[in-house]
Write a structure and sequence with these properties.
By secondary structure, the protein is α+β, with helices and mostly antiparallel strands. The chain folds into two domains: 97 residues, Orthogonal Bundle (Arc Repressor Mutant, subunit A), CATH 1.10.10; 88 residues, no CATH class. 38% of the residues lie in helices and 14% in strands. The chain contains seven helices and nine strands, in the order αααββααβαββββββα. The strands form four sheets. Strands 3-5-6 form a three-stranded antiparallel sheet, with no helix packed on it. Strand 5 and strand 6 form a beta hairpin. The longest helix has 20 residues. The radius of gyration is 30 Å and the shape is elongated.
């Protein structure tokens, strides 16, 4: 019998449908691991992540502060863990399928190929690139490690270059973690001075046309 199943067998045999404390859970984990019950030590923080997972899976039910009971799945797990694990996997998959098929998520699978890609460079589109697209605003682009580039637009039709927001999703408050919270656009048109510098750049290299990145 695996340790996890032994824990729930111990809890069921000792408490059945009666409530127990966090200390009781930790004690049964200690015993299921083969340790001496007389040397049991309950320390704050022990097994907290594991117990939180059991609550999420409804193996345990928290009725009040430091008051727990075996959930229906917990009782069944003590008798047939494989069956309960299969049920939990099915529930998890059903929940994920539901989320994936929500209106705002149903096209998500078309873009999962971007997951894991690395940004290797950032730059605004140069004036020629903007002119080729018929844009007046130059967006900040993200060049990826697979040779592709992400270019923000103002709309799906690509009527102009667009900005992006950079938002910190970390639940901790990280002051000044993001230097620029808006990946802003700049004017795509070149000034006379910029045009002159560009011409000089290419003439010095024996070229007659082109655009500086």
């Amino acid at each position: 019998m695996k340790i996890k199943q032994q824990i729930f067998v111990n809890l069921f045999n000792k408490f059945d449908d009666k409530p127990f404390t966090l200390k009781d859970i930790r004690e049964q984990v200690w015993i299921a691991q083969g340790k001496n019950p007389k040397k049991f030590i309950s320390k704050q923080g022990y097994y907290n992540n594991t117990i939180a997972d059991w609550l999420t899976d409804r193996l345990l039910i928290k009725e009040a502060k430091n008051t727990y009971k075996l959930g229906l799945y917990g009782i069944q797990y003590s008798k047939n863990p494989n069956k309960v694990n299969a049920m939990l996997r099915e529930l998890t998959q059903n929940a994920q399928d539901y989320v994936n098929n929500l209106p705002h998520n149903k096209y998500r699978s078309r873009f999962t190929h971007l997951i894991g890609r690395k940004i290797v460079n950032v730059r605004h589109l140069n004036p020629k690139e903007c002119d080729d697209l018929g844009w007046y605003k130059s967006p900040l682009t993200l060049e990826l490690d697979d040779g592709t580039i992400l270019i923000p637009q103002t709309d799906d039709e690509g009527n102009d270059g667009g900005a992006m927001m950079h938002l910190d999703l970390d639940t901790r408050w990280r002051n000044n973690y993001i230097e620029e919270d808006v990946l802003f656009t700049i004017d795509a048109q070149q000034s006379e001075e910029e045009i002159s510098k560009e011409k000089e750049y290419y003439l010095n290299r024996g070229m007659t046309s082109g655009t500086i990145d």
